[in-house]
Amino acid sequence: MILKFKNIAATALLSFYIAGNAQTGENPIIKDEFLGDPAALVHKGKVYLYAGHDEAPNDFNFYKMNEWKVYSSSDLKTWDKHPVPLKASDFAWASGDAWASQVIEKNGKFYWYVTVSHKTIPGKSIGVAVSDSPIGPFKDALGKALITNDMTKKTTIDWDDIDPTVYIDDKGQGWLFWGNTVCYYAKLKNNMTELDSEIKTVDLPKFTEAPYIHKKNGWYYLSYATGFPEKIAYAMSKSLDGPWEYKGILNELAGNSNTNHQSIIEFKGKDYFIYHNGAIEPNGGSFRRSVAIEHLYYNKDGSIKPIIMTTKGIN
């Protein structure tokens, strides 16, 4: 009887293991919580995935986001969840709203650029947190915002200072891009917490938000959300100062989500496109999003083949 029970238990455990691993690599990659605005960092053989936690109840028709989450993976299929590394409340000058963000490493420090609402300056702002580890804990690096809405004058809206993305070029120069309706950019000082140039703009067709910079074979790529509901478009340049050549739509409308937000990485010799949709059933949607990953391929001229969104993912 005991032997029979052990055999049944072993069979059940094996079945559970197989069933669980059969789903790894499929989209959405994380199915037990809602996550939006994904950003990825490749570091020492792992990918670290950072995303805002969508906490809106089913009947709530706007974002409710108080914290960011971090996951890590060595194969993009099995993901380890880490303790909450950062909350909007960790910025004493912020009133809330843990919107889009990105983490980058420089000189052994990890800098997390985040979108939050400001307590005293109307509108969205960009803050910077720092840690000695990619999984945190992170702390406010400045004690104040890096970018506030009164620093940009190109629009009349107060949410144009969102969606920061940071790139460090081959000379070690840090660049910050961000924006909604207008794409802003500026150089960063070596400390990564101060601007080192005037704020400039990039002229892009139908720019909405979510700029992201990456480089491949001598080309810089600036991808971004366009229109609304949002698709992802992109442009190419030999310089981060431009000029940028518009190349068209990279990713069509994401399923069941008005917004789209992308991260593009190279990992273990392959290229990947990370984005969000609203695919978790039964309550996924524009304010309860989920993260997905697809393969990304380049043409011989450096342009990118259109992304094909799948439920299979990279499995």
TrEMBL record:
Can you name this protein? Glycosyl hydrolase family 43
Annotated source species = Epilithonimonas xixisoli
Gene3D superfamilies the record matches: Glycosyl hydrolase domain, family 43
Keyword list, A-Z: Carbohydrate metabolism, Glycosidase, Hydrolase, Polysaccharide degradation, Signal, Xylan degradation
- Family to which the UniProt record says this protein belongs: Belongs to the glycosyl hydrolase 43 family.
- Per the UniProt entry, the signal peptide is 1-24
Q: Does the keyword Hydrolase apply?
A: yes
Q: Name one Pfam family in it.
A: Glyco_hydro_43
Query: Which CDD domains does the UniProt entry name for this protein?
Result: GH43_Xsa43E-like (cd18618)
Cited InterPro entries: Glyco_hydro_43 (IPR006710), Glyco_hydro_beta-prop_sf (IPR023296), Glycosyl_Hydrlase_43_Enz (IPR052176)
Per the UniProt entry, what is one GO biological process? xylan catabolic process
The site feature described as Important for catalytic activity, responsible for pKa modulation of the active site Glu and correct orientation of both the proton donor and substrate is recorded at 163
Which superkingdom heads the taxonomic lineage of this protein's source?
Answer: Bacteria
One MF term in GO for this entry?
hydrolase activity, hydrolyzing O-glycosyl compounds
